[in-house]
Amino acid sequence: DRKVMLHLREYGRVTNRTLQNMLDVDVYRARDILTRLRGREIIARTSKAARGPAVEYGPGPRFEEEYDRG
């Protein structure tokens, strides 16, 4: 979670592909990480795309709270 949050702080967005490259995981593990972070409201979808490679996520409502706790 911390790596994803640091990436978001620096770049303002994250995608499934970014997580795959950054964490050396497959597409399904990256999806699970994104789903968990969305469930905790740390990230939120910022793109209009609902699925596929164009889906981007940005900081969610609880991002700052979790980041500061980190």
Could you describe the 3D structure shown?
With 70 residues, the protein is mainly alpha-helical. Helices cover 54% and strands 9% of the residues. The protein is built from four helices and two strands. Strands 1-2 form a two-stranded antiparallel sheet. Helix 2 packs across helix 3. The N and C termini lie close together (9 Å).
Give me some keywords for this one.
mainly alpha, two-stranded antiparallel ribbon
Q: How are the elements arranged and paired?
A:
Blueprint: H1 2-11, H2 16-23, H3 27-39, E1 43-45, E2 57-59, H4 63-69
Antiparallel strand pairs: 1-2
Helix pairs in contact: 2-3
- Which range best describes the helical content: under 10%, 10-25%, 25-40%, 40-55%, 55-70% or over 70%? 40-55%
Unreliable stretches (pLDDT < 50, length at least 5) are none
Largest sheet: 2 strands, antiparallel
Shape: globular
Beta-strand segment tally = 2
Strand order of the largest sheet: 1-2
Rg, please?
A: 11 Å
| Whole-number mean pLDDT | 95
Strand and helix order: HHHEEH
Annotation field: number of helices: 4
Estimated share of beta-strand residues: 5-15%
Structural class: mainly alpha
**Cα separation of the termini:** 9 Å
